Amino acid sequence: MLFIILLVLLCTITNLFTKVLILTPLEVLRAIHVPAILLWGGLILLLAWIMGD
User: Fold this and answer.
1) DSSP H helical ranges for 1-53
2) Residue ranges of the domains in the chain?
């Protein structure tokens, strides 16, 4: 039983690791691209507002 659980965990971790290695450069950039722009834009606007005040 424990062996099966460990095997499943190992497979899951390996699968996630390969996904991360292969997809991270593409998927993460695509996924974070818009929120990152919004976040940086918001931070810059906030800083400009604080400096202007």
Assistant:
1) 2-23, 29-52
2) 28-53
pLDDT tens readout for residues 3-47? 888 888 888 888 878 777 776 677 766 766 667 777 788 888 888
Residue 32 tokens, joined: 């974070």
From first CA to last CA, the distance across the chain in angstroms is: 64
DSSP 53: -
Give, as one character, the DSSP assignment of residue 1: -
Distance, CA of 20 to CA of 43 (rounded, Å):
28
pLDDT higher than threshold 80 for residue 50: yes
